[in-house]
Specification:
By secondary structure, the protein is an alpha/beta fold. It folds into two domains: about 70 residues, Ribosomal protein L30/S12 (60s Ribosomal Protein L30, Chain: A, 2-Layer Sandwich), CATH 3.30.1330; about 150 residues, SPOUT methyltransferase, trefoil knot domain (Alpha/beta knot). The protein contains ten helices and ten strands. A seven-stranded parallel β-sheet has the order 6-5-4-9-7-10-8, with helices on both faces. Strands 1-3-2 form a three-stranded antiparallel β-sheet. Helix 6 runs parallel beside helix 10.
């Protein structure tokens, strides 16, 4: 059975402040808990508390949830990956979670600028627990330009609108891209806010569709990169 102090702790993890102060996060579902591995401190089910449904975030709760240590951010691990994805103002937790999962699947890392916080339970669920195995780091907007430029990697900007001299990503064009690169991605509503020069890339699609979901666009880009 969960103690009152444990239930209080779990409730605090529903807020960003609670997660940051404790260094812990709430993980929901069998698969994400498996991905968390040794980071799990304790798990609980409906048998452990009558308040289970109130302690989790899903409308249709999973059978099990857990409290785990938040991933340790190691900048060097982020920079070892050939493909670094920079999320510029992507606030939707489902999109950030999906992109986190894609980075794990296609061997990329993630830099987050004013985007949904990875230990948010919705991001963890959307990532299927990939947050615990994908290198990522936060970057303040004020430092973003200098930090990204100082990495001395070719920079590409995933644009939703046509740009002059843009590269339409395909199996062929992906082969011609540099071995190591940075891909900057913005939100569907606001696009890329960073004032960093880079070559524009685009995903060609039916013109009746205004734009691709940001996670779908990243998936296509990384898949072509991975299969080259």
């Amino acid at each position: 059975m969960l103690s009152k102090s444990q239930e209080k702790l779990i409730r605090s993890l529903l807020t960003r402040k609670g997660r940051e102060e404790s260094g812990l996060c709430l993980v929901e579902g069998k698969k994400p808990i498996q991905m968390a591995g040794n980071s799990v401190i304790f798990s609980f089910t409906k048998k452990d508390t009558k308040n289970f449904d109130k302690l989790v975030t899903t409308e249709t709760p999973q059978e099990i949830a857990a409290v785990a240590k938040a991933p340790v951010i190691i900048k060097e691990k982020v920079l070892t990956k050939q493909n670094i994805i920079v999320l510029d103002g992507v606030q939707d937790p489902a999109n950030v979670g999906a992109i986190m999962r894609l980075c794990l699947g296609f061997n990329a890392s993630l830099i987050l600028i004013e985007s949904a916080e990875p230990t948010n339970p919705k991001v963890i669920r959307g990532s299927a627990g990939a947050i615990f195995q994908t290198p990522y780091m936060f970057l303040p907007r004020a430092r973003a330009n200098s930090f990204i430029n100082d990495l001395n990697r070719p920079i590409f900007r995933l644009e939703s609108k046509n740009k002059k001299d843009e590269i339409n990503i395909s199996s062929q064009t992906a082969k011609n891209l540099p071995e190591s690169l940075i891909l900057i991605v913005g939100s569907e509503g606001s696009g890329i806010k960073l004032d960093i020069k880079g070559r524009s890339v685009a995903i060609k699609h039916n013109t009746r569709l205004e734009s691709l979901n940001v996670s779908h666009a990243v998936a296509i880009f990384l898949a072509f990169r991975y299969l080259e």
